[in-house]
Write a structure and sequence with these properties.
By secondary structure, the protein is mainly alpha-helical. The protein has one domain. Helix content is 61%, strand content 0%. It is globular, with a radius of gyration of 18 Å. The chain starts with a helix and ends in a 7-residue tail after the last helix.
């Protein structure tokens, strides 16, 4: 456990680049849909956002979720530091509960207008591929960090659980945003335990009632439990339109345009 925590950065980077490479190659070999915007432009902007977000988080956040987990354990803060449960159970429960917190965070950024202005940059992508999974505005990333830190503190989540959760969240976000399609039977089985690309693609529909569904990133259970699950898009995966009604011009995909989208008019 100590080895995992001490090598957090290496583990997270290895997982990111490993899953990214697999998904990028899969998209080249078997794309689900043709892209409508230059991949070079979108990848420059979407991956550029990743670099900006990493820099902003390091500069602004005084402590990151895994650091808060270590501090909570040292001070005895939070549920799992106050009750006696086996370590393995605390880890499993913490990962599952953190995932539920992220589900509700995702619902909030859709329902609260001020937060939607931040989150809509993610949905304004005119295509849907592995890089979309990392396309979030820096202010939304800081908001998400605050939510995670609060959740980690309240739960007293073990540091290793936080690391596992972060790696899984990043990996599944790249997987379920992949421009790939699984065989129908396999997709049906997989979406019982993980959000699949076909399941999450519905969430990126231009139709708002479809956008406001399938909020899960990692575990698919919350959408079914809380009534936000939608099996398929109304127009089918080949006929559906990706994105939102605003920012339909390909020029809006440039990095500097993405960064100012929350401050521009429209819903």
């Amino acid at each position: 456990m100590d080895f995992l925590i001490a090598n957090e950065t290496v583990i997270r980077l290895a997982a990111f680049f490993g899953i990214f490479a697999v998904m990028a190659l899969w998209e080249i070999a078997r794309p689900a849909r043709p892209l409508t915007v230059s991949k070079g432009l979108r990848w420059y902007s979407n991956l550029g956002i990743v670099a900006v977000n990493s820099l902003v988080a390091r500069m602004v956040m005084p402590i990151l979720p895994i650091g808060m987990a270590a501090l909570a354990a040292e001070r005895g803060w939070g549920l799992f530091n106050m009750i006696a449960v086996p370590d393995w159970l605390a880890i499993v429960l913490a990962v599952v509960l953190l995932d539920m917190v992220i589900y509700w965070q995702h619902v909030l950024v859709h329902k609260i207008p001020m937060l939607w202005r931040l989150h809509r940059m993610h949905h304004a992508d005119l295509d849907f591929d592995v890089t979309t999974g990392a396309r979030f505005h820096p202010i939304e990333i800081l908001f998400s960090f605050c939510i995670k830190i609060a959740a980690v503190t309240v739960l007293g989540a073990p540091a290793v659980a936080v690391l596992i959760f972060e790696v899984l969240l990043n990996a599944t976000a790249m997987f379920n945003h992949g421009n790939v399609r699984l065989p129908t039977g396999l997709d049906r089985v997989l979406r019982l335990v993980v959000v699949t690309p076909d399941m999450h693609r519905v969430h990126h529909s231009i139709k708002r009632y479809e956008t406001d569904s399938n909020y899960g990133f990692n575990l698919p259970w919350w959408d079914r439990l809380f009534g936000t699950y939608r099996d398929q898009p109304e127009d089918g995966h080949d006929g559906m339109t990706i994105g939102i009604t605003l920012f339909r011009d390909a020029q809006e995909e440039h990095l500097h345009r993405l960064l100012i989208q929350p401050f521009r008019s429209g819903k």
